[in-house]
Write a sequence for this structure.
């Protein structure tokens, strides 16, 4: 114990007693010396803007292994989940580079680029306003020969862009977007059809939402535009495949869309109830998808 006390006394001397004195030149040198930026990055992490640019640099480099390119885009997508980072894509001039990847030879890269775009514009008015990739995403969605998962991500991107975005929806309609989505009901796989019905139903719901100011939602003429694309006929035909392939999730979305359509306007109700092919398909579907009988009864006569 006595030895420990002596050690504490000796080593408890103040800095002024033990520390070597620094001359004025040394003090000035210490003040002027700056930390290496690499050290700062290691401690605090690189700014998000730098990380986003570096991710895209890696993804664009064809000499980079495909797995590393995919990881870089996955990291970029996670960064784009932050609304401020997503809004900075335009000031950083990254949109043209991201959209260029829609045409990459590798399907996984095309898929990732569309995923990033959809994540960035979702519920983000600033990013929606700046997004220049709608036409390119619609072209991929329309291409029936495109890999199914890439088409699905294209629809995700389009859906994120048009939801709660009247200006974007106007661009979407002007570029044949409604027709392209309806086409997907006939030539897409189950996942794509499910998402297409979900989007159509959401747009009809938005058009009928009287609590939202008119300038912030699509007009009810959108419902007429959907009906003019023969969406009820397309659904009647598609219902046969849904039953044949037991596509319950797709049928659930289709049924939800039809119910919403029929309850939205008188024209929508007549289109559903007076379509004999659809009524016949619904009668058959009530046996295949017995869980849906209650909803089917809402639109059958």
């Amino acid at each position: 114990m006595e030895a420990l006390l002596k050690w504490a006394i000796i080593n408890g001397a103040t800095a002024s007693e033990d520390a070597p004195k620094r001359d004025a030149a040394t003090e000035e040198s210490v003040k002027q010396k700056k930390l290496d930026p690499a050290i700062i990055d290691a401690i605090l992490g690189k700014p998000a803007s730098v990380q986003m640019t570096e991710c895209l640099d890696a993804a664009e480099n064809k000499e980079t292994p495909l797995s590393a390119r995919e990881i870089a885009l996955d990291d970029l997508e996670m960064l784009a989940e932050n609304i401020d980072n997503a809004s900075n894509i335009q000031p950083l001039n990254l949109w043209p580079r991201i959209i260029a990847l829609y045409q990459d030879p590798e399907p996984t890269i095309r898929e990732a680029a569309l995923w990033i775009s959809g994540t960035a514009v979702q519920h983000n008015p600033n990013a929606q306003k700046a997004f220049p990739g709608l036409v390119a995403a619609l072209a991929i969605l329309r291409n029936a020969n495109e890999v199914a998962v890439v088409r699905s991500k294209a629809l995700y991107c389009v859906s994120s862009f048009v939801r709660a975005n009247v200006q974007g929806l106007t661009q979407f309609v002007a570029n044949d977007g409604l027709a392209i989505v309806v086409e997907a009901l006939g030539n897409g796989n189950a996942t794509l059809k499910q998402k297409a019905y979900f989007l159509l139903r959401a747009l009809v719901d938005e058009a009928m939402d009287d609590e939202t100011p008119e300038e912030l939602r699509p007009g009810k003429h959108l419902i007429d535009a959907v009906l003019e694309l023969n969406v009820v006929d397309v659904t009647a035909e598609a219902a046969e495949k849904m039953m044949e392939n037991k596509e319950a999730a797709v049928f659930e979305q289709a049924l939800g869309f039809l119910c919403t359509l029929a309850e939205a306007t008188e024209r929508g109700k007549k289109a559903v109830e007076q379509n004999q092919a659809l009524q016949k398909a619904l009668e058959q579907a009530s046996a295949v998808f017995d869980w849906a009988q209650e909803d089917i009864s809402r639109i059958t006569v």
